[in-house]
Structure formats: C-alpha cells, structure tokens
Amino acid sequence: MKTVIVKVGVSAMQSEERIEQAAHYIEKLKEENYRVVVVASGMAKEQAILLAPIAKWTKDALQREQAMLMATSSQIAASSLAVALQARGHASTALTAQQAGIATDARYQNARLTAINTTKIETLLAQGSIVTIAGRQGMANGEITSLGDGGSATLAVALAHHLQATHVVVLAKDSIYTADQQLVPNAQRMTEISFDEMLEFAHLGANLLHPRAVELAKKHNVAILIQALMEQQGTWVKGEKDMEKEMIVRGVAYEADIVRLTVGYEAEQEVSLAALFTTLAEHRINVDIIVQAVMNHAQQTVSFSIDKAQFAEALKVLEDNKQALGFSFADFEIGLAKVSIIGSAMASNPGVAARMFDRLRKEKIMVKMVSTSEIKVSVVVPQDEMVHAAQALHDEYHLA
C-alpha cells in the first residue's frame, strides 16, 4: 500500500471550518487507499495565547520552556485533526514527538533532526490508523525541543524518506506562482518547479516552503506537492520538470527592506575580506550580495547587502571592530529592495541577464547592486521601484 505524508500548516488550522477542510482532504487520500501520516505545525491563536503571559522575560532564559510551549501548540493541532478524522469515522491516532520516535540534537530552539524510529508509526499504519504527529517538536536526552522555522515541513520530508512515501503534500495558503499575485495580478500558478528553483524562491521570500525542507527533499529525491486546501491542483516540487522546459525564466521574486552597507579603506590600507565577513558571521549577521571596488592608488570599498532587521546590530559590530578590521569609514543606504529572476534553464541560455538589465534601463529603474548564480539573477533597486521592477520583468519574460 502506498504512503503519503501530509504537512498541515498553521493557515489550515485557523478555524473549525479550516480544520474540517483539512480533515476532508486527508479523508480523500485515505479513500484512495493511501496510508496517511499527518504532520501538524501548530495553532496560531493558541500559540500566541501560550506565549503572551511570559513575554516580559528574556528569550535566553526561556529556551527550554518556550520549546515546551511550542510543543503544546503542535500537540493541540495534531490532536484536533485526529478528533476531526475520528468524527468522520476513521481510526486516527495523535502522537507526540517522543511517541513518534523523533530524535533531535540538544538545542532547545531550532533543533535539527538526528534520527527517526518509525516502529510505532508503522504499527499504527498497519492497523489502518491515520497517524497525526505534533510537527514542531522533537526529543533529546528526555527533553522536549523545538524544530523551529521550517521544522514541520522538514520532518514531513524526513518521514517520507524513512517510510518510503510516494510524496509529501504541503497544505499551504497557496501554490507557487510566477510572482506574488499581490504585486503582479496576472501571475500564473506553476505546475512544476525543480528543487533548485524552489530553493531560490524559498531563500528570496517565498514563505510556502522552508529551504531546510527543500534541501532535504533534494537530497533524498522526495517529491512535494504544494497545494491550498480548496485548490484542485497545486505545484509539484521535484528533481526534473516534465513540462515548460522551454521557459528560461520561471518566475520573479522580491525581498523588501534591504540595506546596503559600505566599508571604505584608505589606498594604502590592506583589505581583508576574510576578517570582515568572519567578524560579521560570528555575530550572526547574514550577508547577501557583495561588491568590492578596487582601483590603484585610490580608496577601496566593499559593499554588501543585509536585511533591515539586522541593520543596527551590523553597524554596532562594525564600529566595535573598526580598529581590528582596519577600515576608515562605514556608510549605509536604506530604502532598497531585491528583485530576482529565477530559472534552471538560464545556465544554458546566454543573454538572460543582459535582457533583464536592458528592460530595467528602459523602465528607468536604477540598479544598485547585482548578484548572479546559474539559475538566478538578483538586482538591488530603490524600494519604491520594487513593484514596478517585478511587474516589468514578469512582462519581459512573458510569464503571464
């Protein structure tokens, strides 16, 4: 008998009606003769209620207790789905991480999976039960841990690998589109997308599937179907695309609130990129696009982009380490955004980037920074031009 893993996100657990819809979706899979394992992320309202009374205490002092609270939220979600399925006449059993054999490393927050013992899950499936698992929790040395962002989807992929499931279904807010429909109303739902393309979309702000889950799915070649509850179709994420291979650019992504930091050196000063970025990394400052300008007998500069949320911390780190790093000044520019085109066929089709830059030039959109990979070209532009740039590039590559 075939096995399928269903990851139910928080958006599918926001109301009694949504829970009923999720139960109906799972019920249909059971009727199609699948063995079904459900991974439930949590309940948004319950999670907020649980965390609110302790918000006045520091996060560092709460990591163990926060993990327990987050575990409670996902247990409520798993149990609610099991009860909804039982009400529909199906045998269903809710499991905690310990009962499901989910082992992680010893970090209380953002724990990583280390092993899965599927014995109990297999026993329940053999008995015909639909198994629902609290998705955001794990166990380490008898302690509850929290899998953190993307943990539920990553667990679903790991279970699919261990149980040799045909695929994972991610019940999300929507499928994957060629662009954000709020910015580009004529964006189209994609039937299929490769793991590499999905990784780029995930890193560039598409919140439907976390990079952790995509990376694990690529490693074990686990196909994922991303689908909204009331959709008849979704988007398949897998190794090879069977359709639309002629499309060089598959989609446009964007990320707002980008800051450009520039560090300048006197002409005779030695520039150590390793020292600069090692220092930032030690303080968990995530750097994205990097541009170095070096000219003989002139001031040298290194510019890099970071998320706005880390701006203040990055400035402090640079100021605290100015003497050790040897730079003469640090400057910044806020009010920027990153717009990217993505497509795995770009690597074998020259001229894609030139076409992008030409369209942005025609639209009189200033490009501040550029980053490229085999399947992505990203530009940093003024934030008030972000929507304009996304719409223009979506039109340029005929994605509608």
State the helical fraction.
Answer: 25-40%
Q: Give the DSSP E fraction (strand runs of 2 or more residues).
A: 25-35%
Q: What can be said about the biggest beta sheet? A: 8 strands, mixed
Low-confidence stretches: none
Domain module count: 2
Which strand order does the major sheet show?
A: 3-6-2-1-9-11-12-10
Task: Give the helix tally.
Answer: 13
Mean pLDDT: 88
Key words describing this protein structure:
400 residues; alpha/beta; Carbamate kinase; VC0802-like; 2 domains; eight-stranded mixed sheet; six-stranded antiparallel sheet; 13 helices; 18 strands; 27% strand; globular
Helix and strand arrangement:
Layout: E1 3-8, H1 16-31, E2 35-40, H2 44-51, H3 63-87, E3 92-95, H4 97-100, E4 102-104, E5 113-116, H5 119-126, E6 130-134, E7 137-140, E8 143-146, H6 151-162, E9 167-172, E10 192-194, H7 195-203, H8 211-220, E11 224-228, E12 235-238, E13 251-265, H9 273-282, E14 290-293, E15 300-307, H10 311-320, H11 322-325, E16 329-342, H12 352-362, E17 369-373, E18 376-382, H13 386-396
Helix pairs in contact: 1-3, 2-3, 6-8, 7-8, 12-13
Describe the structure.
- The protein is an alpha/beta fold and 400 residues long.
- The protein has two domains: 3-172, Acetylglutamate kinase-like (Carbamate kinase, 3-Layer(aba) Sandwich), CATH 3.40.1160.10; 251-396, VC0802-like.
- 34% of the residues lie in helices and 27% in strands.
- The chain contains 13 helices and 18 strands.
- The chain has helices at residues 16-31, 44-51, 63-87, 97-100, 119-126, 151-162, 195-203, 211-220, 273-282, 311-320, 322-325, 352-362, 386-396, and strands at residues 3-8, 35-40, 92-95, 102-104, 113-116, 130-134, 137-140, 143-146, 167-172, 192-194, 224-228, 235-238, 251-265, 290-293, 300-307, 329-342, 369-373, 376-382.
- The strands form four sheets. An eight-stranded mixed sheet has the order 3-6-2-1-9-11-12-10, sandwiched between helices. Strands 14-15-13-16-18-17 form a six-stranded antiparallel sheet. It has a two-stranded antiparallel ribbon with strand order 4-5.
- A hairpin with a 6-residue loop joins strand 11 (224-228) and strand 12 (235-238).
- Helix 1 crosses helix 3, helix 6 (151-162) runs parallel beside helix 8 (211-220) and helix 12 packs across helix 13 (386-396).
- The radius of gyration is 23 Å and the shape is globular.
- The mean pLDDT is 88.
